[in-house]
């Protein structure tokens, strides 16, 4: 493999004028630019000018002036005086946009890592109710009868409880047979259905399969989907888990009690994350789409007293200290909107072998990291090396591709591309500050697919890529290496092509600590781990081999430094038992169900519990803040055994069943 240094301002990287600008740039955007966005979804176009645009999430300081960015930034969501927002930057104006930013400002690309706005006007529409539940997920079968109200006498389903559904597909209005989807006036992209339109569709198409095809809603075409299952656990009526683990004393034959609990009757605001041309499982675009989803839910619930939002999505990369752009934005959003409570899944990375730690002595090299990249991988692969210590500025990293005997050394502030025949196969760059880690040294490694979907791209070598960090300073340097998520989406065929740190020995490269979901280390959200409702599992833990109730995949803390305890905050069942994996809830058609596993399933159990708990406080001033809700949840469900597992158990334990 040949290596070429890429200088800012060169023909290969015109979007960076100077080497100093590298410290403020999103490394994922640099890789996308070098590969002509081959590993990402297509760039949206301005409907008037036809110019290609890049979705970004940005943070501005108090000196931000919208007039200064006229023509370079379309920001549909931005509070007066600066703050966090999302918007579109014309691809040919990216350098100008970057140059206008002040010290401390940052932005991150929100383009999905998959092959292949107009100005905001506040909507007067809202739901005048005391409690609402928001679901941000993939595949939301909104016509399922679990999401409809029921006649208290006959038990028959009547109107839908899904008051709003926003599909964030930027081409949604182009795929709009019958013109059922309407423009989302205050977001600038995608399409939405309101409750009356959903009721109209259900009356016209009792066959749910025909209904989804009638409106070209392909996320619900399959037999099951992640979002439908999560939404049923969080707010379906009846509660599908009321008898899990035999925690409930309710009589199964007593159908009059089945719909008790405000969560089973509360209005639902659902946001479908981008699905076309394929689902982004890497989490690369969450920074834009999750923040937009929260803002959309806020605009549809301005008259609601309490809102509980479930987010069972995330990624492996990032600094994992609460400083990432999305986590910082969500924390500020929750502080500014105290009626909101956000519940986040802890993640399933405990045994994924996607995190490694090193402590490197002065003037020495650390133990090499063996990064095993699998064949037949259709998508790009990424690794981030996060440095901590005053010697970060002088650090370097050496990369040896599979089958080669020599390594290439990259120093901080440099960009090198490995290629054959001119086509980039890999990229390595070092930056002292990035959008996800301000003032934190980072080395970023990107690989092309080992089996590209098009002949236009050359395949990267599969096998073991050896990565070695070197400390060139006089002080000790600590390193966290993280491989980004690359697993197939739920329901997709084919084997998993997730790369990992390999050697399989007792002294493994992989570290199981600090493996939380990339959006689960903020200070304001409630983070949920998973455990077995019944039975225990023999597992190697931080305290040695022992029988444990914690699910083997449930990610480990520590989480946010200011939490005062190890993460997650609480845990809830994610499996019935070690032999009966997963929990059963709704599939995509009424009357059908499916078992799904993971902390994604545990999080909506807590969402339901929080919603039912908050329903008692909606008439009492002042309303509880997210911090109060978290502490109340932990104190009411304190788990005395939490100190045994520490960063995996959570300070509280939720038991599902008939809700109080």
Question: Care to give the gist of this entry?
Answer:
This protein is 15% helix and 26% strand. With 660 residues, it is an alpha+beta fold.
Total number of helices:
10
The CATH class designation of the domain at 131-345 is Alpha Beta
Major β-sheet strand ordering: 10-11-9-12-6-13-14-27-30-33
Radius of gyration from the CA trace? 24 Å
Profile the largest sheet.
10 strands, mixed
Count of strand segments? 33
Helix content: 10-25%
- Structural class by secondary-structure content: alpha+beta
Molecular structure report:
This protein is of the alpha+beta class. Among the domains are: 2-22 and 33-109; 131-345, Peptidase S8/S53 domain (Rossmann fold), CATH 3.40.50; 355-501, Jelly Rolls, CATH 2.60.120. Helices cover 15% and strands 26% of the residues. The chain has 10 helices and 33 strands. It has a 10-stranded mixed beta sheet with strand order 10-11-9-12-6-13-14-27-30-33, with helices on both faces. It has a 7-stranded antiparallel beta sheet with strand order 1-21-22-23-18-25-15, covered by helices on one side. Strands 16, 17, 19, 20, 24 and 26 form a 6-stranded antiparallel beta sheet that branches. A hairpin with a 6-residue loop joins strand 7 and strand 8 (157-160). Helix 6 (286-300) packs parallel to helix 7. The radius of gyration is 24 Å and the shape is globular. The protein starts with a strand and ends in a 7-residue tail after the last strand. Mean pLDDT is 85; it is low at 116-124 and 247-259.
